[in-house]
Specification:
The complex is a heterodimer of chains A (about 350) and B (about 475).
Chain A: H1 3-37, H2 43-52, H3 58-75, H4 77-86, H5 88-108, H6 114-144, H7 158-161, H8 164-188, H9 192-223, H10 228-248, H11 252-274, E1 277-279, E2 289-290, H12 298-325
Antiparallel strand pairs in A: 1-2
Helix pairs in contact in A: 1-2, 1-3, 1-6, 1-8, 1-11, 3-4, 3-12, 5-6, 6-8, 8-9, 8-11, 9-10, 9-11, 10-11
Chain B: H1 3-42, H2 45-79, H3 81-115, H4 122-151, E1 156-159, E2 164-167, H5 170-174, H6 177-209, H7 215-254, H8 256-262, E3 269-270, E4 274-279, E5 289-294, H9 297-303, E6 310-311, H10 314-325, H11 334-347, H12 349-361, H13 371-380, H14 382-397, E7 402-404, E8 416-417, H15 418-421, H16 427-458
Antiparallel strand pairs in B: 1-2, 3-6, 4-5, 7-8
Classes of the chains: A mainly alpha (about 350), B mainly alpha (about 475).
């Protein structure tokens, strides 16, 4: 296989890792406020229980995105340069959200004060909703294309960013991640939160089927290849299975595994439909950025290939080990008192 | 202002801002690892409390470093897309390696360290912080290797067919002498930053302990930590001077324009004097009046000799550059490079003096109680941060107008000016994003400072005085985690 083709798949794998891992992080952040605000137990303990389900792992999950971005830069500089400059403002919004989320999560417990926590919660909510929606929009744009001219420049207009298809993409990822988050919380908690997470999963099941299913079908019909029907089929079957399990309120492990399959199959559908384009030009197909004309030299790709093949298995091993170390469920009753300082010295 | 100016301001502001927090992360991670190692080895709870105390400060700081770091990676494509296209074949690989080798390690093991106190066996947990320390330092290496390609491109050639620079030798890129010495310079600067941070805070707490009848804490925690921080700062300062000297000698050869402008040396001279003070606008060579200078220093800085050294001046280098690369202004901003260079070196004196003073005042078991000494400790802390910022401002402003400075002995076509590297945005778009970053970063800086100050003044906490025994995760709950969110 030519290396630039291999690298298309490797970048797809990195984004798949990002979506599978960070997807439930976003979902947990999206559901933290609504799950915390009502139900049994102290509202703040509930929020902390929800947040601590991703506590030890969210930071490393995010590195999949950083690495995917760097790999795009290294393997397909034209793709990276064209896409990132053309989507300047959407990426600014994503960065804004991600920064808020990071400091919101890390600083939330540092000061034991309701106002302080409310601000942190706003940051976490914004920082989870914004990227959850905008990554869907971004992937839809990757499929739909941008007005790239002969010089590889794209003058993006608002209509390129916000069209019915891209908006549906944003709603699809947002609903999928929220559903995914509810299943993850059900898997990682026990007691009241566990039950309530199932309730949210039920509430979300119709939106996720309609929005994610609709986006998948539109993608397949407009941009798909014959074989990507298979990915769409797997995604739909797995989603229906996950929804059925959530309705039965049992076997959250299987429900989680099914949702992982859904997210992975959606990633396969997106990248499978994209190939061999990386970013199609809506002006002239000859001006599209493709796997052929966007890639680095074979020498660079060969070095990157060896490095990834040597290091990714190691990364997967120790990241997997982290999930094993923190495999316990979390319950509201077991949340210790906040050890944050008071706002002012006493 | 056009899009180029605004983009440069944005990159400068976001990068300098990012590197306020990063040196502390890089330097403090190994120091905390040492503290925890001492605790594990001796069982002395004072070192456990120090680990926890500086660990909290480390985490407050780590968060903002991570958050502002993501912006850096995105910005190359967003604002400097022509640059990214031109050098992507070379520049992207170290960034990808940084993700694969450094970021995955540090992010995974920082999670294990924060949440693993009562989960992991002690030695495994100790290994986690050492791996974090490795990760943050490895990350510095790869990003500086990438930056060094901009300062002194090696291992690459220009491909006229594709119109871009292409990698021909990855080993040469990673062993670029500029990269190795700049990396060691940044690492020693980070250790100095962290050493001064630990020593300054501990000194302040030690002086305060006299008014709070905390003599035991002063003797078992603050005094040893002050001494540890002071030793690290002094050793780092020696390394900093040595690596800076080597780097300077390389730069006289590789980027003579940068060094000439750092000296405001306008015309080629043999054995020029080292300038300590000049007045004038500096952007115009004719307006500079050299007020105070010393002989012998500059020839030594350039070639380790006291005389017989001819250094090229800005105006002569400008003429050579015009002959080689066509008409244009190839002079960096003399005012900025001249003063940033002096600020970087001058600020070094403060932590060194403070560290020597600390070792003197704590000699033979003494526990100093002078109020001014505690205050001096706090005032020392910002100086290495400012020196790092000045150093980066110097080295990045000194390569202007280039984004990739042509290598005098390399492929002359592997070069690019910042003007050619910028994305094709409207100035207003970039001004908007600059406004967003300025507001967000400003707010974060306030919160960061508040949190650091709050945790420093509180001192080591009571509930961190007893280490929790590691519990196997068999129960269906979370054990009390002192770092949990």
């Amino acid at each position: 296989m030519p290396l630039h083709e291999l690298w298309f798949y490797l970048i797809a794998v990195l984004f798949l890792g990002f979506l599978v891992l960070e997807g439930f992080d976003f979902g947990v952040g999206m559901l933290m406020a609504p799950l915390g605000s009502r139900g049994d137990g102290d509202p703040d303990d509930r929020r902390r229980a929800v947040l601590n389900t991703i506590g030890p792992v969210w930071d490393a999950n995010e590195v999949w995105l950083i690495t995917a971005g760097a790999a795009m830069f290294a393997a397909f500089p034209n793709w990276y340069a064209t896409l990132f400059s053309a989507l300047y403002l959407p990426l600014l919004a994503i960065l804004f959200g991600m920064i808020l989320r990071i400091v919101g999560i890390e600083w939330r417990g540092k000061i034991n004060d309701p106002h302080w926590r409310r601000w942190a919660d706003i940051g976490i909510a914004l920082g989870s909703w914004l990227p959850a929606i905008l990554w869907g929009v971004a992937f839809a744009i990757l499929l739909r294309g941008l007005p790239i001219d002969a010089d590889g420049q794209a003058q993006t207009s608002i209509g390129d960013v916000l069209s019915p298809y891209t908006l549906l993409g944003g709603l699809a990822t947002a609903s999928l991640f929220a559903f995914y988050g509810s299943v993850f919380i059900a898997l990682k908690t026990s007691g009241a939160i566990h039950e309530d997470a199932f309730r949210f999963g039920r509430l979300l099941s119709i939106p996720v089927i309609v929005l994610a299913g609709g986006f998948g079908l539109w993608t397949q019909l407009a941009y798909g290849k014959p074989w990507t029907w298979l990915a769409l089929g797997v995604a739909v079957v797995a989603l229906l299975a996950a929804v059925a399990l959530v309705w039965q309120k049992t076997r959250e492990g299987w429900a989680f595994a099914s949702t992982v399959v859904v997210v992975a199959a959606v990633a396969v559908l997106i990248f499978g439909s994209m190939y061999p384009n990386l970013l199609p030009s809506t002006l002239n197909p000859d001006w599209s950025v493709t796997v052929e004309n966007g890639s680095s030299t074979p020498y660079t790709l060969r070095i990157m290939t060896w490095a990834s093949l040597a290091l990714l298995p190691l990364v997967l091993t120790y990241q997997g080990w982290t999930y094993w170390v923190f495999r316990n469920r979390i319950s509201v009753d077991a949340i210790p008192a906040s050890i944050g300082l008071s706002r002012r010295p006493s | 202002m056009d899009a180029l100016d605004v983009s440069r301001w944005q990159f400068g502001i976001t990068t300098v801002y990012h590197f306020i927090f990063v040196p502390l992360t890089i330097g403090l991670a190994p120091l905390i690892a040492v503290m925890q190692t001492v605790w594990v080895a001796t069982g002395n709870p004072a070192w456990y409390r120090l680990t926890k105390f500086f660990g909290k400060l480390f985490l407050i700081n780590f968060a903002i470093g991570v958050a502002t770091g993501i912006v850096q990676e995105f910005q190359f494509g967003m604002n400097w897309s022509e640059y990214s296209r031109f050098v992507g074949d070379i520049f992207g690989a170290p960034l990808a390696f940084e993700g694969l080798i450094a970021f995955f390690f540090e992010s995974t093991f920082i999670g294990l360290w924060i949440f693993g106190w009562s989960r992991l066996p002690r030695l495994v947990h100790l290994a986690c912080i050492w791996i974090v320390a490795f990760g943050v330092n490895a990350s510095a290496y790869f990003i500086i290797a990438a930056n060094s390609f901009m300062q002194h491109p090696v291992g690459a050639k220009f491909n006229p067919e594709s119109g871009r620079a292409e990698l021909i030798d990855f080993g040469a890129l990673l062993t670029n002498n500029t990269a190795i010495w700049a990396f060691l310079h940044a690492i020693t600067a980070s250790l100095l930053t962290a050493g001064a941070f630990v020593a300054g805070i501990s000194a302040w707490l030690m002086v305060r302990s006299h008014t709070r009848s905390e003599e035991a804490e002063a003797r078992t925690m603050y005094r040893p930590a002050t001494i540890l921080g002071s030793f690290v700062a002094l050793i780092a300062a020696v390394g900093l001077v040595a690596t800076g000297d080597i780097q300077g000698k390389l730069m006289f050869v590789q980027q003579p324009m940068k060094m000439a402008s750092a000296e405001s040396l306008c015309h080629t001279e043999t054995d020029p004097n080292f300038s300590i003070l000049t007045v004038g606008t500096h952007n115009n060579c004719d307006s500079i009046i050299r007020v105070l200078e010393v002989p012998y220093v500059l020839p030594f800085l350039a070639e380790s000799k006291f005389s017989g050294v001819t250094l090229q001046g800005v105006e002569d280098l400008q003429k050579q550059a015009e002959e080689k690369f066509g008409p244009g202004n190839y002079r960096p901003n003399l005012f900025v490079t001249y003063w940033a260079f002096r600020a970087m070196i001058g600020l070094l004196a403060v932590p060194v003096a403070f560290a020597l003073l600390s070792l003197w005042l704590t000699r033979r078991g003494r526990i100093p109680d002078q109020r001014w000494y505690g205050t001096l400790g706090i005032l020392t802390i910002p100086t290495p941060f400012l020196a790092s910022s000045a150093g980066w401002v110097f080295t990045e402003m000194g390569r202007q107008p280039w984004v990739v400075v042509p290598n005098p002995t390399g492929d002359q076509m592997v070069r690019m000016t910042v003007q050619d590297g910028v994305s094709n945005h409207a100035a207003g778009t970039v001004l908007f994003s600059l406004g967003v970053f300025a507001l967000l970063y400003g707010a974060l800086a306030v919160v960061w400072f508040y949190l650091m100050r709050r945790y420093v003044t509180e001192g080591p906490l009571e509930h961190d005085s007893e280490p929790a025994p590691p519990a196997p995760p068999d129960k269906d709950d979370v054990a009390p985690l002192s770092f949990a969110y």
